């Protein structure tokens, strides 16, 4: 079977959604509600796991609970690879996005209605698979709305990312309010309602999307269908056996996800570097991506602790009184999206203004790791304090530093992955960047076992120092890394 070529988008003259095509409103909506439900659920997930049963939780030890959250977060990014493959080889981005949204709804309903660990297990697996599929394909579908030379493209993507951060801002606040007043399952239920709203809106608007959104760029030959189905069934059976025999347990999930991600990353690098379809320049650029990959892992292993250690810290250390009202623990996670919305435009303007004089990508990565390490050191003045001893303003300031570090690495990483990618492996290089996020996220959950609220200084100082050393190491290696990158900055 010959590969079907995606239809080149024609110029879309529709300007009904703030100057953008009206179809963008439906993708904007489903992504906004997906982020609302994702961050809303994640905002209360950890405390649900470790709160006692008398507080409405499951009473799981904090270290185990943090490992579960980290493994779940890592699995979301791992499943983006599956979502991209299904779109590229079998169904097209739009169909995978639609089905993924339904899977997410089912996952949130399971968390809201099923009791105990059963609801957690079923719910998190479904949400991870669905979020990975949606995350992998929503951006691709947005791209089909514009011709390559449409000047509205960048503004359209900016509007799309506004939706992402709007959902991420509102989700933890509203689910936290329901959790603290009515109970955890009401919070999970609100996440399910939010995602359902996004799915309903998208289901009405998806028919108006261009046919190129449904195109399958590299169709899988029908002769290989039985092999793929067999592998999928074998994988499901293997996981079921490992769970039933106790090999996969709630207390080792983070380690398993870390191991799987390391194996997948090594395999991806090996396949690309050993391929005969790349030339010496492309191979050198892939080697140049390796130190960026390692730095990205170090960054995300600290940054993603917003959902693990910082949640515990906010619960036990933070003075959450605001205007005489105690805000829910999850509300702290709404601070970062506000800074993202404010600062992303500032950073874009700075890079545009500097032009060719802006720092190189390895320099940005190195500075990002150093800034992230410095953010952890900022916890030290408040370490080992009593209950409610850390001012809310201090956490706001620390999360501001988190955001600065993120904007130096996250959007830059996606961009450089496409620049360094060999022509034959463009999607795989982006997948490698997502694997660095998956690995860092899983590590962030694994690290919770070393966090002791009674003796926080070693934890924050050690991790902060490691990140700073990683950043300094990359800064000292900028010239050789740029030589490997062969003209890509």
UniProtKB/TrEMBL annotation:
<feature type="transmembrane region" description="Helical">
    <location>
        <begin position="159"/>
        <end position="178"/>
    </location>
</feature>
<dbReference type="InterPro" id="IPR020846">
    <property type="entry name" value="MFS_dom"/>
</dbReference>
<feature type="transmembrane region" description="Helical">
    <location>
        <begin position="323"/>
        <end position="351"/>
    </location>
</feature>
<feature type="transmembrane region" description="Helical">
    <location>
        <begin position="225"/>
        <end position="248"/>
    </location>
</feature>
<dbReference type="InterPro" id="IPR036259">
    <property type="entry name" value="MFS_trans_sf"/>
</dbReference>
<dbReference type="GO" id="GO:0006857">
    <property type="term" value="P:oligopeptide transport"/>
</dbReference>
<feature type="domain" description="Major facilitator superfamily (MFS) profile">
    <location>
        <begin position="1"/>
        <end position="482"/>
    </location>
</feature>
<keyword id="KW-0812">Transmembrane</keyword>
<dbReference type="InterPro" id="IPR050171">
    <property type="entry name" value="MFS_Transporters"/>
</dbReference>
<feature type="transmembrane region" description="Helical">
    <location>
        <begin position="389"/>
        <end position="409"/>
    </location>
</feature>
<feature type="transmembrane region" description="Helical">
    <location>
        <begin position="363"/>
        <end position="383"/>
    </location>
</feature>
<feature type="transmembrane region" description="Helical">
    <location>
        <begin position="286"/>
        <end position="303"/>
    </location>
</feature>
<dbReference type="GO" id="GO:0005886">
    <property type="term" value="C:plasma membrane"/>
</dbReference>
<feature type="transmembrane region" description="Helical">
    <location>
        <begin position="96"/>
        <end position="118"/>
    </location>
</feature>
<keyword id="KW-1003">Cell membrane</keyword>
<comment type="similarity">
    <text>Belongs to the major facilitator superfamily. Proton-dependent oligopeptide transporter (POT/PTR) (TC 2.A.17) family.</text>
</comment>
<feature type="transmembrane region" description="Helical">
    <location>
        <begin position="254"/>
        <end position="274"/>
    </location>
</feature>
<dbReference type="InterPro" id="IPR000109">
    <property type="entry name" value="POT_fam"/>
</dbReference>
<dbReference type="InterPro" id="IPR005279">
    <property type="entry name" value="Dipep/tripep_permease"/>
</dbReference>
<feature type="transmembrane region" description="Helical">
    <location>
        <begin position="430"/>
        <end position="451"/>
    </location>
</feature>
<keyword id="KW-0472">Membrane</keyword>
<keyword id="KW-0813">Transport</keyword>
<dbReference type="GO" id="GO:1904680">
    <property type="term" value="F:peptide transmembrane transporter activity"/>
</dbReference>
<feature type="transmembrane region" description="Helical">
    <location>
        <begin position="36"/>
        <end position="51"/>
    </location>
</feature>
<feature type="transmembrane region" description="Helical">
    <location>
        <begin position="124"/>
        <end position="147"/>
    </location>
</feature>
<feature type="transmembrane region" description="Helical">
    <location>
        <begin position="63"/>
        <end position="87"/>
    </location>
</feature>
<feature type="transmembrane region" description="Helical">
    <location>
        <begin position="184"/>
        <end position="204"/>
    </location>
</feature>
<protein>
    <submittedName>
        <fullName>POT family proton-dependent oligopeptide transporter</fullName>
    </submittedName>
</protein>
<feature type="transmembrane region" description="Helical">
    <location>
        <begin position="457"/>
        <end position="476"/>
    </location>
</feature>
<dbReference type="Pfam" id="PF00854">
    <property type="entry name" value="PTR2"/>
</dbReference>
<dbReference type="InterPro" id="IPR018456">
    <property type="entry name" value="PTR2_symporter_CS"/>
</dbReference>
<keyword id="KW-1133">Transmembrane helix</keyword>
